[in-house]
Amino acid sequence: MKNKFAEQLSLDLVGFMRKDVAEGAHISKSQLTRMSNGERSGDKSMRVAIAHRLHSILLALSGARTDYGLLSFLKDTTKHNDVISAMFRQRKEENDRRAIEEEFDEAMSTEKKFRSPQQVLLIDKYFDEYAEEIMSENTDIVMKADYAGINLQNVFNKANTRLGG
Q1: What angle do CA 63, 64, 65 make, to 5 degrees?
Q2: 12-31, pLDDT tens digit by residue?
Q3: Reported pTM
Q4: DSSP letter string over 61-104?
Q5: Which of 143, 135, 129, 133 is nearest to 72 (CA)?
């Protein structure tokens, strides 16, 4: 069974010679093949090298999900996958979360043993909404960068260098 990184890697490898990608990432072709088949996950440095070699921000985010538990993108096949719809989805997710924020703050400030069942559900809902907002923001930035012709990998590399990450 393929993991998210393997799925994205398979998509990103289309049109590339695996031998060239493997050499550019300093791994063997068989390692790359096993990673794209989901038979091997590879270590963080391998995933970073492959994403860098393929200039794929989606693969880099998929690797970050593997390494740091970041959330994957929303994949709603009923929605348009363009910069405008991504922007609207991101705003909607943010508004949904903000709509329950005051109640969430009240619930969180209540000592656990005194929280009502509604407050407990609200706390769970808030974190679900927040997770959806994060996924929507990820989609939004990738779509906007793609539309603008910006290489997000370079942006993240500069930020990591600047911030020491």
Answers
A1: 90
A2: 898 889 999 999 889 999 99
A3: 0.47
A4: HHHHHHHH--------TTS--SHHHHHHHHHHHHHHHHHTHHHH
A5: 135
